[in-house]
Design brief:
Number of strands of chain B: 10
Number of helices of chain B: 10
Number of domains of chain B: 1
CATH architecture of chain B: 3-Layer(aba) Sandwich
Helix content of chain B: 25-40%
Order of helices and strands of chain A: HHEEHHHHHHHHHH
Oligomer: heterodimer
Structural class of chain A: mainly alpha
Strand order of the largest sheet of chain A: 1-2
Strand order of the largest sheet of chain B: 6-7-8-3-9-10
CATH superfamily of chain B: P-loop containing nucleotide triphosphate hydrolases
Shape of chain A: globular
Distance between the termini of chain A: 44 Å
Largest sheet of chain B: 6 strands, mixed
Order of helices and strands of chain B: EEEHEEHEHHHHEHEHEEHH
Bound molecules: adenosine-5'-triphosphate, magnesium ion
CATH topology of one domain in chain A: MetI-like fold
Radius of gyration of chain A: 23 Å
CATH architecture of one domain in chain A: Orthogonal Bundle
Shape of chain B: globular
CATH class of one domain in chain A: Mainly Alpha
Largest interface: A-B, 23 and 27 residues
CATH superfamily of one domain in chain A: MetI-like
Number of helices of chain A: 12
Largest sheet of chain A: 2 strands, antiparallel
Number of strands of chain A: 2
Helix content of chain A: over 70%
Chain lengths: 288, 254
């Protein structure tokens, strides 16, 4: 056998293996989605997403949980997006490349691996007790924000790294200040990547239970929250209750699947929004 | 050489970390003259001209010693306004570095950040003038809104020249401006350099000996970070005082 045909067979085998891996992942996702959709879609209705739960949550909808998840995700974004982007700009553009910076970066990476329940307990101490925000949307949102920060910082920094140095140097050589160079010739091109990474982090936060369990999420509320200082219902926590804590789990099972489906739609919707936004921004100033 | 040099490097040393890239250079660039920097790849030509507008400041772990004078005063101190300096000393990089904006916005960029844009008419005027000077206007006049990344390598190089001209610096540093350009555009760039000479100070790095001989008044020959010879171009190309210089310019090197 000639060496070139051996090479071709090796390549074919290699590609086959890669395709199999991809197929495996896709199959897992498809199976999971199919299961949730088939069991949850029957409870999906206008009433389900627009009404409050009734009769000990055995009937009615989950509107308060959807509303609460929206609000708490907004608070999360308000903390995690601007602070994350600013921190990334500082780390990538301004900080000296020395040991301290590397240590900071390493700590941030490690923080993204801290279990979410730890953030939850930390949030209780910091926001609920010390800062006296009580169990509220604010406390829960800030806790989720802290949890998301390492992700937004890392994603934003990676996005800044993809902008070639020649854009910075080119601007500086024309007499731009460092900030001008960053603002006009680096950030616009890093923004699409930043947004994608950030939204992925937010989507993850929106689905978390542990960090909000002790900081503001409520089992069931007779009314919608009126301010950021109120408690709230949230989709993941509601799902957790329906699936494990309810007195009649068998009866509310379809509702639990419906809730799971809504949560997944919410999260996928966020991701889809990020993709569309990125596509639009990229088209505006092509890719380098 | 009676008038004061526009730029003067005095015993200039430069280090990338522990590696010394420039060794005690003494080079003077005179106003309304073209100074060519020649030498084999890796000898420190780019490093040298990048010290002149403090571009190497942005490379981590570098160090300069000695002095660089512009109009007689040092530009190396910490008190120097580097932003102002870089506006006065324009630079065209070795690798074309257009921004992913439209052709028009590329040229307008320097004017905008320096608050020189003025009215739309003025801006359009300067953009056209710069593109004409850089011998690119005819090729792009109908597509100023196109992204600069759609241009060919040589067109990008001329775009970067136009961009540097637009902010009207006092000195222009060219790092191999013709490396990706065909002979016709090269001739135009050489004409441009000839014209720029009447008002600007020009420093040009080139690998093309004929080009150095054609466009420059003075030539510096570097090797391994050292200045081997610096003299009037006429002298360097007709009667160099160093054997190494002669070997290099006649292509008998190595
Ligand atoms: N950022 C850097 N870090 C470390 N060493 C560098 C860096 N840039 C250049 N050098 C080294 O400094 C020396 C001079 O490089 P320089 O780019 O100035 O050469 P050059 O004369 O412009 O070469 P060429 O003709 O190939 O462009 C080389 O040995 C190079 O390896
Ligand atoms: Mg070079």
């Amino acid at each position: 056998m000639t060496s070139s045909s051996t090479k071709k067979i090796r390549q074919a085998l290699g590609f086959l293996f890669l395709r199999l891996c991809l197929a495996l992942v896709l199959a897992a996702v498809a199976l999971f989605l199919a299961d949730i959709i088939s069991r949850g879609s029957s409870s999906l209705s206008w009433e389900f997403i627009s009404q409050k739960p009734r009769r000990g949550m055995t009937e009615g909808g989950i509107f308060p949980a959807i509303f609460g998840t929206f609000l708490v995700t907004a608070v999360t974004a308000l903390l995690a997006v601007p602070v994350g982007i600013c921190a990334a700009i500082y780390l990538n553009e301004y900080a000296k490349k020395n040991r301290l910076t590397r240590l900071i970066r390493l700590s941030i990476r490690n923080l993204s691996g801290v279990p979410s329940i730890v953030y939850g307990l930390f949030g209780v101490i910091l926001f609920v007790n010390m800062m006296k925000f009580g169990t509220s949307i604010l406390s829960a949102g800030l806790t989720l924000g802290l949890m998301t920060l390492p992700w937004t910082i890392t994603a934003s920094e990676e996005a800044l790294k993809t902008v070639p140095n020649s854009f910075r140097e080119g601007a500086l050589a024309l007499g731009a200040t460092k900030w001008q160079a960053i603002r006009t010739n680096v950030l616009p091109y890093a923004l699409p990547g930043m947004l994608t990474g950030t939204v992925l982090g937010l989507a993850r936060a929106a689905g978390e239970t542990a960090p909000i369990m002790f900081t503001g999420a409520a089992f069931a509320l007779p009314f919608l929250p009126k301010s950021l200082g109120d408690q709230f219902m949230a989709l993941p926590y509601h799902l957790y209750i329906m699936a494990t804590q309810h007195h009649d789990i068998a009866k509310v099972r379809p509702l639990a699947y419906g809730t799971a489906l809504v949560l997944i739609i919410f999260v996928l919707g966020l991701n889809l929004g990020a993709v569309i936004l990125r596509y639009r921004l990229r088209r505006r100033h092509k890719r380098f | 050489m009676s008038d004061q040099p526009k730029i003067e490097a005095k015993n200039l040393d430069f280090y990338y970390g522990a590696k010394q890239a420039l060794k005690s250079l003494n080079i003077a660039c005179h106003p309304r003259k073209v100074t060519a920097i020649i030498g084999p790849s890796g000898c420190g030509k780019s490093t040298f001209i990048r010290t002149l507008n403090r571009m190497n400041d942005v490379v981590a772990g570098t160090r300069v010693a000695g002095d660089i004078l512009v109009d007689g005063s040092s530009i190396l101190g910490p008190k120097i306004d580097v932003v102002e300096l870089r506006k006065r000393i324009g630079m065209v990089f070795q690798k074309p570095n257009p921004f992913p904006k439209s052709i028009f916005d590329n040229i307008a960029y320097g004017l905008r950040i320096n608050g020189m844009a003025g009215s739309r008419e003025h801006l359009e005027e300067v953009v056209e003038k710069s593109l004409v000077e850089a011998a690119l206007w005819d090729e792009v006049k109908d597509r100023l809104k196109d992204n600069a990344f759609a241009l060919s390598g040589g067109q990008q190089q001329r775009l970067c020249i136009a961009r540097a001209l637009a902010v009207e610096p006092e000195v222009i540093l060219f790092d191999e401006p013709c490396s990706a350009i065909d002979p016709i555009a090269t001739a135009k760039i050489e004409d441009l350099i000839e014209r720029l000479k009447s008002t600007y100070t020009v420093v040009i790095v080139t690998h093309n000996m004929q080009q150095a001989a054609r466009v420059s008044d003075y030539t510096a020959f570097l090797m391994l970070g050292e200045l081997i010879e610096f003299d009037e171009t006429k002298k360097i190309f007709t009667a160099p005082s160093q054997k190494m210089t002669e070997d290099y310019i006649t292509g008998r090197f190595g």
